[in-house]
Amino acid sequence: xxxxxxxxxxxxxxxxxxxxxxxxxxxxxxxxxxxxxxxxxxxxxxxxxxxxxxxxxxxxxxxxxxxxxxxxxxxxxxxxxxxxxxxxxxxxxxxxxxxxxxxxxxxxxxxxxxxxxxxxxxxxxxxxxxxxxxxxxxxxxxxxxxxxxxxxxxxxxxxxxxxxxxxxxxxxxxxxxxxxxxxxxxxxxxxxxxxxxxxxxxxxxxxxxxxxxxxxxxxxxxxxxxxxxxxxxxxxxxxxxxxxxxxxxxxxxxxxxxxxxxxxxxxxxxxxxxxxxxxxxxxxxxxxxxxxxxxxxxxxxxxxxxxxxxxxxxxxxxxxxxxxxxxxxxxxxxxxxxxxxxxxxxxxxxxxxxxxxxxxxxxxxxxxxxxxxxxxxxxxxxxxxxxxxxxxxxxxxxxxxxxxxxxxxxxxxxxxxxxxxxxxxxxxxxxxxxxxxxxxxxxxxxxxxxxxxxxxxxxxxxxxxxxxxxxxxxxxxxxxxx
Length: 482
What we know:
alpha+beta; five-stranded antiparallel β-sheet
């Protein structure tokens, strides 16, 4: 076990990609085995010291930033315990980085299908937020690929949960039998939207107990090990960077493209393209929107696949002659570089402005997307605040990044974000589709579920964390635990 106390050394644990400031802790602890974790938690419980679980620091909601107490970092719990090619599964500790996992899988022809966007993220962090990425359109979020979890509660008790073993219902109490005790889990009774969401605890009728610990943002227990489902790498893949002469052409193309077999459907608006043009001169001036999509296929169906997409692109007036196509890893890397350049350039503007960006993580049902998108444009156009819109359009999940230049614009951006949240909830949407709630979105979650349901979340947490030490202020305000 390594313990760090030097303020200059541990300050890096008080930040993530959220921009949340002011974090502090007495010490940072790096355990190397389960016994050390248990000893840490039992001491914390006895002294009622808050414990914040720290992963890779790539989150955007401030979930890993402590405000007092201790930090428990999972960085030394980084073993890939087993990869079983025959059963298409792997067992890993929570500190394994996604990039490290991919480096082990790629040479043997395997992949981790949900492919969350950030390669430096820890597996444990992606489970704790039910993360997803560009391929979520076809493969769905992390939840779909978790077969088993080994979780330690704050009391030191260990739960081994295999998918399909325990089923629970919302609004009911569930008796979880452990080796030497029973735990009564009080389940909330709220209803979740039937779309991609990472907002609050996963609650459904006849749900798998395993799913309660996916998306719990370090508030219910510490993930010690995870068994995940793997996939076989596609035999062939083609990628398209397709430019369109109007926003409506691009959005209508996506509507029809959903009937195909795309792995991903991603969008960039005109402001995004204008920003990229400052660095990439090969983006056509006539383009007003871009859809990036990928398709896996077998060699014998290549011509049929290309024909399908060509006809669909022509139908929606795509600028085919100036669009980009890649069917090799080398060419695909160039497209991905362009795609990933946008958030990097946004961050450069943030640093230049010395003002945080205000970025959304909202998704809505299919039949309400056009209305939501129109609302984004209406509010943003009249705001005079610089912005870009991009993201997972296949799942109706846009990242609206407002880039304020002054304190006044920042406050205005936050008010606009609240308008977006209220609109999305009225349309049956979610306030967080993939990043979670953390410490920054309590007010948004309350709009989505109401304060009484947040109180139900607090009761659920106390069932599993009776001393209320884990992940305080994540998902809901810690005051609800009193």
